[in-house]
Amino acid sequence: xxxxxxxxxxxxxxxxxxxxxxxxxxxxxxxxxxxxxxxxxxxxxxxxxxxxxxxxxxxxxxxxxxxxxxxxxxxxxxxxxxxxxxxxxxxxxxxxxxxxxxxxxxxxxxxxxxxxxxxxxxxxxxxxxxxxxxxxxxxxxxxxxxxxxxxxxxxxxxxxxxxxxxxxxxxxxxxxxxxxxxxxxxxxxxxxxxxxxxxxxxxxxxxxxxxxxxxxxxxxxxxxxxxxxxxxxx
Length: 234
Description:
The protein is α+β, with helices and mostly antiparallel strands. It contains six helices and 13 strands.
């Protein structure tokens, strides 16, 4: 991995402390599902897509590659599987990939709209973040539940995993009609004042707590991907 090129991809000249590295990644690299037919968890393919081609990805890709960067920078990284809370039930095993870094921090740059900074892995009190108020709770089964503003976000299994362990669920998420990733396109990233998102043909811009939505035609949509994310969808 070319660490300098990766840091340049996220707008940095040198590696900062972990919280700033986390925020810089969220601002530069979008959570997106625009190329589900070309998803690979091979480290070289992840680097090519996110760093060289300046694309984004979903959790397995974003947290998968970020883990490699953190390791290159001297951090200890543990990959953990999580299940996301939906409107009716928990998602399947390996539904989401999160990272525990240096046995101190819960790191997640692959959940779309979540915490701006890493969360304290061992704290069980409220943690205030620009993204909301977070809390980690232990369950009777040995898992850790992550709540945001009082609502459960996902449930983490604490057994260490390898990136390859997520391949089967990654395939399901990108191919199955029941996966929410196959039902609509999404592209979103953090901004200094809020968030910018394209959901199907709708541009959503949140700035200083104000939300504006604009429905785009095909020409406007292509321009929004280019101007807001630097992406030319295939």
